[in-house]
């Protein structure tokens, strides 16, 4: 008789119920009363107005100027956004950025004098700033005027805010990337005003492609390096930096010194002929041995010739999606899905640093082919992420993935051996996408570790856990074997370029095995949930090493049950998600692990408020219970299930950013007496441009929960019995899928 397999229990969302919101706290602490706030800020507003008046008019499109309002760190929550103050003065919010400040008055329990805060970019005609400076000393604190108490400082952006990554050895005419506040809808005339400003400076320049995403406009600019500081004088210029290079043949894969080794290609397949994967890379060779499973799709605008290294890279990435790492002398496993390979850049794109053009080809395909559910990106700009400015690639890919209907794996980059102090070892765009699964590389040792070349975290906050995880990507001693152009011969390579598609292959295996009941967000949650971290640094390996044995992910062993929730949350609502346990309760020691994932719209003009959705998650070990010292509490006691990730530098930074992360994961241990019908109460917070919004839509989410109780070996069966008709085992579809790779 075949051994019974306890497959993943699905439809946990059938258990969810709406609940009333918890009771609020007391009045808000204020660092300054209104009189002190007015006294502090009046001379600063006057200084800003005077500085604006002294600057040449060409720097201001339609005489509009941009200034920075620094919030006091106690007022970062969206409910404290100073919208009333902005309306009172007639200021328009055009963005924000994270900053560190030393407030004159520290919040209660502050552990440092330097605290994370948000600086708001506000725009208005110069005359508005002048009128504010004249009126502020006479304010009495009515209506929006009272929100002045939330402001720590006001100033104009300086060169240190705008100019990025210009080294002393970079000289002559160069290609730059300029980021402007606003777009044609929100700030008409900004781009034309920038061209007029450059002409007024009498510079030799050439404006290239212009791309709008969210509340920003990205512009390619050819000009002399020596004029950067003058270029940065344009008021609506948010940032300027050298245009990053495309990662040609990236990650910088090193061919193995080993001789090519034989292997066998499978016959037949793919396992699920309905599954399609879009791979965006450097091209696919004609007459490849992998042609039976790969469709080489010609992309408009790519006229060739393709670079040989790019084509070799594209072949290797496709091989990794189809088979994972090959094994010498063995037959490759059947591919789970066929690949549509899009060669999106050629030698011309490399020579012209056409970062925008390559991205536009990716965007066009994904917009025209919404049927793709699986995507791999092992390419992007060769630059580390920075906290203050969201890269165009990141903003665009996150926008395309906001529905949660696509699982995209993104290589973290191969800059892991770069300078740590300068941040050059950090993940590279679009690896900081909050809606993608970012994959780094590790070795294959028993005591595994991050591969030295693999770029690592932290990412930006929110989205600070990047990469999401790691998987084998090859080392010099143990290379990642991929198909070569020669039939039956594999060659070795290394790079996160191959780790990312390998991780995608594992997700495809789950989908092929259990069918379309597993939505992309659920696959992402399962990948993170089953990752092995141990005591390794979360900044280096994310949530851990992804599991490559599908049996371990999709089935439960003795004393274990894994449950999947998939659904939608409504803005402002409170939803209770019960954690299934037997009717008889639990025995002995209990381990709970839980992983939440959601997808969201984003605001690239607001890095610190980048995600438009966040979850307040209240874990209640006993849904009806009160603690002994609070028997009259109005709701059941809560427990902080999701602890502070170590990559958050301060408790204050955690408080403001953690709930806006799109992935949350934790493992906790309890005694049986501590758990009596435990639940997660989840509140969906919606925001836009850092402030409350009434226009948010429903939020797609996935939750994976694993209950382990070694003293109850029939735990799975007891849970199935209690929730019969609600939970359902997700058994394999009729296609026979190998679960071990």
Automatic annotation (TrEMBL):
GO terms for molecular function: serine-type endopeptidase activity. Pfam families: Peptidase_S8. Residues 308-544 form the Peptidase S8/S53 domain. GO terms for biological process: proteolysis. This is Peptidase S8.
């Amino acid at each position: 008789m075949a051994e019974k397999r306890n497959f993943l229990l699905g439809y946990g969302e059938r258990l969810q119920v709406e609940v009333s919101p918890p009771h609020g706290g007391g009045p808000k602490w204020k660092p300054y009363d209104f009189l002190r706030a007015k006294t502090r800020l009046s001379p600063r507003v006057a200084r800003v107005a005077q500085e604006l008046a002294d600057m040449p008019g060409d720097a201001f499109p339609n005489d509009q100027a941009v200034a920075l309002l620094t919030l006091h760190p106690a007022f970062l929550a969206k409910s404290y956004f100073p919208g009333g103050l902005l309306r009172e003065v007639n200021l328009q919010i055009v963005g924000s950025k994270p900053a560190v400040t030393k407030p004159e008055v520290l919040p209660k329990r502050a552990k440092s004098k330097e605290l994370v805060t948000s600086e708001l970019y506000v725009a208005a005609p110069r005359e508005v700033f002048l009128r504010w400076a004249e009126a502020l000393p006479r304010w009495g604190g009515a209506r929006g005027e009272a929100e002045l108490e939330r402001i720590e400082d006001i100033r104009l952006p300086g060169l240190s805010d705008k100019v990025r990554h210009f080294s002393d050895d970079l000289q002559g005419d160069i290609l730059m990337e300029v980021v402007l506040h606003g777009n044609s809808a929100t700030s008409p005339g900004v781009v034309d005003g920038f061209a007029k400003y450059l002409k007024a400076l009498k510079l030799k320049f050439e404006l290239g492609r212009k791309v709008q995403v969210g509340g920003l406009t990205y512009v390619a600019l050819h000009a002399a390096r020596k004029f950067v500081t003058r270029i940065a004088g344009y008021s609506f210029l948010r940032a300027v930096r050298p245009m990053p290079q495309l990662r040609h043949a990236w990650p910088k894969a090193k061919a193995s010194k080993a001789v090519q080794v034989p292997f066998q290609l499978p016959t037949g397949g793919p396992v699920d002929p309905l599954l399609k994967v879009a791979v965006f890379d450097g091209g696919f060779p004609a007459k490849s041995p992998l042609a039976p499973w790969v469709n080489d799709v010609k992309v408009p605008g790519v006229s060739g010739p393709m670079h040989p290294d790019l084509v070799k890279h594209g072949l290797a990435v496709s091989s990794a999606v189809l088979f994972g790492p090959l094994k010498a002398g063995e037959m490759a496993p059947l591919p789970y899905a066929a690949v549509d390979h899009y060669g999106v850049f050629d030698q011309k794109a490399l020579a012209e640093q056409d970062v925008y053009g390559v991205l536009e080809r990716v965007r066009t395909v994904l917009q025209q082919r919404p049927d793709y559910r699986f995507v791999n990106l092992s390419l992007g700009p060769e630059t580390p992420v920075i906290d203050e400015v969201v890269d165009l690639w990141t903003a665009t890919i996150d926008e395309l993935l906001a529905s949660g209907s696509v699982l995209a794996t993104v290589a973290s980059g191969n800059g892991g051996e770069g300078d740590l102090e300068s941040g050059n070892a950090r993940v590279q765009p679009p690896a900081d996408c909050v809606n993608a699964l970012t994959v780094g590389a590790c070795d294959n040792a028993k005591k595994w570790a991050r591969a030295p070349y693999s770029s690592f975290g932290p990412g930006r906050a929110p989205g600070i856990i990047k990469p999401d995880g790691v998987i084998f990507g090859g080392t010099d001693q143990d290379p990642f074997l991929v198909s070569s152009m020669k039939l039956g011969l594999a060659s070795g390579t290394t790079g996160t370029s191959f780790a990312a598609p390998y991780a995608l292959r594992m997700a495809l295996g789950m989908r092929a095995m259990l069918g379309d009941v597993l939505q992309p967000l659920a696959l992402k949650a399962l990948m993170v949930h089953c990752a092995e971290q141990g005591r390794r640094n979360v900044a280096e390996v994310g949530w851990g090493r992804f599991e490559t044995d599908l049996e371990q992910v999709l089935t439960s062993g003795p004393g274990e049950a894994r449950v999947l929730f998939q659904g939608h949350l409504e803005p402002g609502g409170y939803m209770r998600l019960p954690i299934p346990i037997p009717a008889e309760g639990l025995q002995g020691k209990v381990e709970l692990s839980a992983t939440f994932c959601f997808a969201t719209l984003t605001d690239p003009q607001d890095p610190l408020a980048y995600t438009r959705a966040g979850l307040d998650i209240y874990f209640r070990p006993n849904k009806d219970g009160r603690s002994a010292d609070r028997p009259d509490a109005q709701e059941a006691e809560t427990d902080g299930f999701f602890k502070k990730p170590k990559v958050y530098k301060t408790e204050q930074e955690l408080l403001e950013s953690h709930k806006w992360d799109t992935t949350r994961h934790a493992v906790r241990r309890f005694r049986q007496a501590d758990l009596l019908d435990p639940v997660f109460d989840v509140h969906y917070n919606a925001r836009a441009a850092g402030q409350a919004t009434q226009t948010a839509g429903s939020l797609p989410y996935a939750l994976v929960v694993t209950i382990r109780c070694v003293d109850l070996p029939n735990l799975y069966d007891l849970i199935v019995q209690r929730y019969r008709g609600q939970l359902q085992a997700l058994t394999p579809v009729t296609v026979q899928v190998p679960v071990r790779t």
